[in-house]
Amino acid sequence: xxxxxxxxxxxxxxxxxxxxxxxxxxxxxxxxxxxxxxxxxxxxxxxxxxxxxxxxxxxxxxxxxxxxxxxxxxxxxxxxxxxxxxxxxxxxxxxxxxxxxxxxxxxxxxxxxxxxxxxxxxxxxxxxxxxxxxxxxxxxxxxxxxxxxxxxxxxxxxxxxxxxxxxxxxxxxxxxxxxxxxxxxxxxxxxxxxxxxxxxxxxxxxxxxxxxxxxxxxxxxxxxxxxxxxxxxxxxxxxxxxxxxxxxxxxxxxxxxxx
Length: 259
Hints:
Blueprint: E1 6-7, H1 11-32, E2 37-54, E3 63-64, H2 66-69, E4 74-85, E5 89-96, E6 99-105, E7 110-112, E8 115-117, E9 122-143, E10 146-165, E11 168-188, E12 193-204, E13 207-219, E14 224-238, E15 243-258
Antiparallel strand pairs: 1-11, 2-3, 2-4, 2-15, 4-5, 5-9, 6-9, 7-8, 9-10, 10-11, 11-12, 12-13, 13-14, 14-15
């Protein structure tokens, strides 16, 4: 879970409204701004190198969620729609659902949200980290082979961690807003092939969040394009209510169409 900026109540209701809102925006945008829109789907495998949890953050027991869920890889999918307007501006909507779960054994007794989960007994863990993101980018340089952009993003975080063992079950939900800085770089190797760096992130004394992708993209004549590369997502929070830090790695492929 990325660091907490703003908490929002009624998680299930807001989640439904967000999905409806994104769907409506994509439909309306595609019908109104044809010629300046690209849509893409990203998929592949994701694995973890870290997923440490302690809830509450001040007096819970720190444990490794990977002992229950495993490191992966697990399949994932993301959806994007980018609208370019003017010569230098772009807005991007991104939907990035993610959930992993598994059964394993805790290394020691764990106090999680006031409930004690015992060691050496099968326990189930579930980790959810869904994000909905709106990004604005301004192109600040576009000459010869290079295009560079700067911007900002607002991320809606819908996260949860669950432990289950026998009749015992506890879940920590976390729904909030996170502002991010956006960086973009594109280097054209030729008329069809480009290398693209896409990064968003932020840092505060209470936590951090970074989502960085490096990919090679091939553009076809028909408006279709495809890409493949590596993405990393790292972040966490450290406060009285929650301590959680995760580091995720993605091997991804992408296909899209430019209207």
